Amino acid sequence: MALERIGFLLHITRSHGIVRRYFVVNGFDGALTMLGIVTGFYVGDTQDLRLVIGTCVGAAIALTMSGLSSAYISERAERRKALAELEESMMADLGDSAHGSAARWVPLLVAAVNGMAPLLLSLLIILPLALAQWGLPLPLPPLVMAMVTALAVIFLLGVFLGQIGQIFWLLSGVQALIVALCTMAIILLVG
C-alpha cells in the first residue's frame, strides 16, 4: 500500500495520534523491559551472553506478538463500530468506500506499529550484547553497554514525546530517563 494511501486512510479515520501513541507506549514498554532484563542479569553477575540474548529475544518476541494481536483486535472492533455508525447515519453500505477500506486497513497498520515498536527498540538495546558475542570490542562491558543503550533509547522516546506535546525536549527526555533510572534502582536494590 502506497504511503500516500496510508496517509489518506489515517487522515479520514483521524488515527495519526493513535498510531503515534501506540508506537511510544509499546516502544517504551519494550525498552523498559529490556532494561529490566539486562539489569537483572547484571545484578546476577551473568557472564553467559547467549543466555542474556536468548532471554531478551524471547521477551521481545512476546512483546511483539502481544502488541500485534492486542492492537489489531481492539482497533478492528473500534473501526467496525465507527463504520457501522457512519453507515447508519448515511443509511448506506460503505463497505466499498474509502471508509470501508480504512476500517479494514487501519487496524492492520496500527497493529504493525504497535508490534514493531518494541521489537525494533529491543533489538537496538540487544545489539551491544550481540556485537560482544560476535567478538567485536565495546567501550564498556556488554551488559553495561546494553543498559546505556536502553537509557539512551528511553531518553529519546521522552524527547519525541516532548516534541509532540510541545514540552521542552530536555525536560521531557529527563522525565522518561528518571522512570528508567528508578526501574534500575529498584532492580539493583531487590537484587
Descriptors:
single chain; 191 residues; mainly alpha
Low-confidence stretches: none
Number of helices: 6
Kindly state the mean pLDDT as a whole number? 92
Structural class: mainly alpha
Instruction: Let me know the largest β-sheet.
Output: none
| Residues in helix, % | over 70%
Rg, Cα atoms, Å = 20 Å
Shape: elongated
Distance between the termini: 48 Å
Q: Strand portion, in percent?
A: under 5%
Order of helices and strands: HHHHHH
Give the strand tally: 0
Summarize this, please?
With 191 residues, the chain is mostly helical. The chain is 85% helix and 0% strand.
Structural overview:
The structure is a single chain. The protein is an all-alpha fold. The chain is 85% helix and 0% strand. The protein is built from six helices and no strands. Helix 2 packs parallel to helix 4, helix 3 (49-90) packs antiparallel against helix 4 and helix 4 packs antiparallel against helix 5. It starts with a helix and ends with a helix. The mean pLDDT is 92.
Write the layout of secondary structure elements.
Blueprint: H1 3-12, H2 16-43, H3 49-90, H4 98-133, H5 142-165, H6 169-190
